[in-house]
């Protein structure tokens, strides 16, 4: 896996993935930025959410669960001072479908957290306290 991050100006950077996709990262005005992109630490949080959601959807589809929608809401706390790494992240999955089995959603979230999500496992190894919860929403409602 490869990526390139190129400085644009101020504290704006253009990140390009090895697969050819680009994203703009920038800071707030009080840090010399123009607020034109996602903050780098937000990128880590988004990557975690994407990695875990990828797993949850894949596990549910293999279990033949009728998933119509899935979102994960992430809430993070960071240490005071510099550096200010994440200290705690809570991931709340909201999975929608018609007739989803609660036990299958619970299993998918647990397997992602403990076995499959590389981002979760890496952050936990670095000392971040990760917690998970989920809600099953009936699509018929």
From TrEMBL:
It holds the Pfam family OsmC. InterPro entries: KH_dom-like_a/b (IPR015946), OsmC/Ohr_fam (IPR003718), OsmC/Ohrsf (IPR036102). SUPFAM superfamilies: OsmC-like (SSF82784). It comes from the Bacteria. NCBIfam families: PRK10738.1. PANTHER family: PROTEIN YHFA. This is Putative redox protein. It comes from Simiduia aestuariiviva.
């Amino acid at each position: 896996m490869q990526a390139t991050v190129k400085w644009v100006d101020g504290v704006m950077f253009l990140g390009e993935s090895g697969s050819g996709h680009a994203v703009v990262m920038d800071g707030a005005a009080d840090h010399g930025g123009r607020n034109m992109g996602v903050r780098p630490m937000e990128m880590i949080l988004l990557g975690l959410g994407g990695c875990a959601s990828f797993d949850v959807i894949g596990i549910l589809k293999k279990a033949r669960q009728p998933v119509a929608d899935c979102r994960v809401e992430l809430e993070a706390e960071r240490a005071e001072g510099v550096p200010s790494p994440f200290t705690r992240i809570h991931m709340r999955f909201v999975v929608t479908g018609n007739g989803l089995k609660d036990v299958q959603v619970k299993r998918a979230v647990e397997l992602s957290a403990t076995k499959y999500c590389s981002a979760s496992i890496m952050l936990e190894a670095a000392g971040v306290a990760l917690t998970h919860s989920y809600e099953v929403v009936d699509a018929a409602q």
